Amino acid sequence: MFGFARKGFSQATALLVALVTSCGATQFGANEANLARARTVTTRGADLFAKECADCHGDRGEGLAQAPAVLGPGGLPMYPRDSAGTGSMAINDPEQLRIRQQTRPAGAPWRDPFRTAQDLFGFVKTHPAKKRAEWVAPDDYWALVTFMLAAHGSAVPAGGINADNASSVTIQPP
Q1: Is the pLDDT of residue 20 over 50?
Q2: Where is 28: in which H helix or E strand?
Q3: Which tens digit of pLDDT belongs to each residue from 85-131?
Q4: Cβ neighbours for 67, distance < 8 A, ≥ 6 positions apart
Q5: Which of 31, 44, 104, 167 could form an SS bridge with 143, CB 3.0 to 4.6 Å?
Q6: Among 67, 68, 56, 69, which residue's Cα sits nearest to residue 27?
Q7: Band of the pLDDT at 31, cuts 50, 70, 90?
Q8: Going from the N-terminus, what domains does the chain have, and what CATH number goes with each?
Q9: In this predicted model, what pLDDT tens digit does every residue of 118-164 receive, in sequence order?
Q10: CA distance to 53, 81, 144, 170, per residue, from 67 (Å)
């Protein structure tokens, strides 16, 4: 009987170790290769993301309790996430609700689909984070969009994304 209990314990221990290590290997947000490439493409965009976005969305864009994932698996979905059943506090954040009400016509979905860099730029520029001031220059927004798409795994043009090429830069799933 002792041998059976010991064998059962060993199997249970092995299963627990396998679960813990497999969960630890799950990647949330942008992967290291894409983050490194994005930092190379635009250090300004990387700095802006770290300063303006990471507090809520995480260093890798993985999403934190109060904000959704914006990079990597689950990030930048083409259509808005269904707010029902999510654990995100951002869904009920009064400031975010106010911003949504002010920027969308009555009955319209709360955001347009994300298909191109232009779509993302429009959203980022018109739905600023609470701490982002009005003084952020358009070039800073383009640097941020360039960083986000490169970190997400999308191809970005040499020299980054700007008003002239944004409509032709598509958002690729990670």
Answers
A1: no
A2: none
A3: 344 444 445 566 566 556 655 655 567 788 999 999 988 887 766 55
A4: 56, 57, 88, 90
A5: 44
A6: 69
A7: very high
A8: 29-168 (1.10.760)
A9: 999 988 887 766 556 566 788 999 999 999 999 999 999 999 999 99
A10: 10, 12, 17, 23
Percent of the chain predicted with pLDDT > 70: 63
Element housing 21 (H / E): helix 2-24
Residue 111's alpha-carbon distances to 23, 38, 124, 157, in angstroms, are 32, 25, 11, 26
Residue count of the chain: 174
* Of residues 84, 85, 63, the one with CA closest to residue 74: 63
Q: What is the largest CA-CA distance in the chain?
A: 75
Beta strands in the chain (DSSP E): none
| 3-class secondary structure, 47 | helix
Contact assessment for residue 71 and residue 50, using Cβ atoms and an 8 Å cutoff: no
pTM (2 d.p.): 0.70
Give whole-number Cα distances, 38 to 19, 58, 74, 75, 151, in Å.
Answer: 32, 16, 18, 16, 5
Residue 126 token pair? 């018109």
- What pLDDT shows up at residue 109? 55
